[in-house]
Amino acid sequence: MQITDVRVRKVAKEGKLKAVVSVTMDDEFVVHDIKVIEGEKGLFIAMPSKKAMDGEYRDIAHPINAGTRERIQGLILEKYQVALDERDI
């Protein structure tokens, strides 16, 4: 699987949510609404989720293993930093 596109939409308001991202894989499949969040230990991503009947939030789409999650998160945070740097110009 190749990640062929990452689109970052920065969030203008203050708060923990910093951006919403769409990731395209193999130019054939896209996952929307991945969130970039500022946590106590730095930035991380949250996969798209919905609220279940028991009140808990469950991921709609997510990587199957830690290595894939790390690769996706690394690419997203890299693109997020580029988007921040472009804003500063």
From TrEMBL:
<dbReference type="Pfam" id="PF04026">
    <property type="entry name" value="SpoVG"/>
</dbReference>
<keyword id="KW-0131">Cell cycle</keyword>
<keyword id="KW-0132">Cell division</keyword>
<protein>
    <recommendedName>
        <fullName>Putative septation protein SpoVG</fullName>
    </recommendedName>
</protein>
<comment type="function">
    <text>Could be involved in septation.</text>
</comment>
<dbReference type="InterPro" id="IPR007170">
    <property type="entry name" value="SpoVG"/>
</dbReference>
<dbReference type="GO" id="GO:0030435">
    <property type="term" value="P:sporulation resulting in formation of a cellular spore"/>
</dbReference>
<dbReference type="GO" id="GO:0000917">
    <property type="term" value="P:division septum assembly"/>
</dbReference>
<comment type="similarity">
    <text>Belongs to the SpoVG family.</text>
</comment>
<keyword id="KW-0717">Septation</keyword>
<dbReference type="InterPro" id="IPR036751">
    <property type="entry name" value="SpoVG_sf"/>
</dbReference>
